[in-house]
Amino acid sequence: MTIGKTVRRIPAAVDAAAKRRPAKPPPKIRMRAPALANVIAARLEEDIVLGRRHPRERLIEQDLCDRFKTHRGDVRFALFELEKKGLIQRIPNRGAMVRDLTPKEVTEIYAVREELEVMAARILPCPVAAGDIAKLDELQKKHSAAVDSGDMLTVFYTNLHFHQSLYGLCGNACLIETIERLAQKVYGIRSYANAFPEALDRVRRDHVEMVNALRASRRNELIELTRRHLQPSRDAYIRAYERRFGNTPTASEPPA
């Protein structure tokens, strides 16, 4: 005996209605707020670049948990991110502390930064587009206004964005990334030069001259300004370090 299968047919009207029914839209993806760990990392970075935290100063996890009303997982992730940037170091059995760059390390980093940023100035295409000049002009004005108002956090970030926009004109992604990584390593030493009004005034005058050199396609002048511009932060940090920890050899001064 053959047993046949019963096939249920969908009425034509129902089938047509199903085909006309619009497909369900994909579920909406909820945008997560910035993780607290990222907020902690940003606040600690600001403390370091503004000189509120000093080289060799310990960053105690429980203190940070209490400050940010969170658990150690968020704090540890934030410290890991800062360590990747070179702003802090974590030592076994001692915990985390603000990274202590020696004068030798600072001299070496700045020597490499100088050559890389000069390379960017050497290869950026001239003449520079009017829109790029206008962007640099605007950043310079914001930086100058922050200097006048004493807003040191804005001074730091507008200076940072000015230089990112400047060397970004070279168009070499590998060079840009390398310059930014080295700049991150010395974020913590900027506050030493920024403590002196004459140094801040020199920085903004350099910015004006850099923009003018770009506007007139005076490449050699831009290169010389780039070399000169890096020196005050390096020198101010080394002087402060030696006053606090004693004189140590720089990269060009071998130990006796």
List the helices and strands and how they pair.
Elements: H1 12-20, H2 36-49, E1 58-59, H3 61-68, H4 72-85, E2 88-91, E3 95-98, H5 103-123, H6 130-149, H7 152-167, H8 173-185, H9 190-194, H10 197-215, H11 219-229, H12 231-245
Antiparallel strand pairs: 1-3, 2-3
What does this structure look like?
It is built from 12 helices and 3 strands. The protein has 256 residues and is mainly α. The protein folds into 2 domains: 36-98, Winged helix-like DNA-binding domain superfamily/Winged helix DNA-binding domain (Arc Repressor Mutant, subunit A, Orthogonal Bundle); 103-245, GntR ligand-binding domain-like (Four Helix Bundle (Hemerythrin (Met), subunit A)), CATH 1.20.120. Strands 1-3-2 form a 3-stranded antiparallel β-sheet. The longest helix has 21 residues, at 103-123. It is globular, with a radius of gyration of 27 Å. The termini are far apart. 26% of the residues are buried.
Summarize this structure as a short list of keywords or feature phrases.
256 residues; mainly alpha; Arc Repressor Mutant, subunit A; Four Helix Bundle (Hemerythrin (Met), subunit A); 2 domains; 3-stranded antiparallel beta sheet; 12 helices; globular; disordered C terminus
